[in-house]
Amino acid sequence: MDAEALRALQAPLKEKYKADSRSAVVTLKAQGDLSGEGLACKVSTSRAMIEAGLHPATGGSGLQACSGDMLLEALVACAGVTLKAVATALDFRLSGGTVRAEGDLDFRGTLGVAKDAAVGFTEIRLFFDLDSLEPQERIDALTKLTERYCVVFQTLARPPKIALTVKAGN
Predict the structure, then answer these.
(1) Which domains does the chain have, with CATH numbers?
(2) What is the pTM of this model?
(3) Distances (CA, A) of 168 to 41, 61, 79, 165
(4) Is there a contact between 53 and 66 (Cβ–Cβ < 8 Å)?
């Protein structure tokens, strides 16, 4: 896809959202199934069923997906797609590359071993290795716009309000 095709694809959406801002608000949903044996949650994705379980550092077997890994995978996916869309819009010459994320967890927090240890990531790092001969100022612009428009990056950088509701019954 080139910049012109991307603009043509997105133009009607942008016009619609300008005319009716409420139409731009979409509620994404995810659902998990707690039935079954073991310490697992089966999560339905748009492509497959993923069984998430404990990370080996908390007693898991390593055979199930780890939700922390899934969070980093979501960041990599979103950042990669966003970078490619921005590169397309900028006519940025990109012949390939990789995107990866890594994050630091202190499992003493999630296991309740140390009250002063954080539960969750204390640091996340995102890396791009680009196959491009573009000048540094164009790479900097691509980086800035990717950071600005990546939904998962922005959600992690500026956490939204979050609510927890529990209902019990049969």
Answers:
(1) 3-157 (3.30.300.20)
(2) 0.92
(3) 17, 29, 38, 10
(4) yes
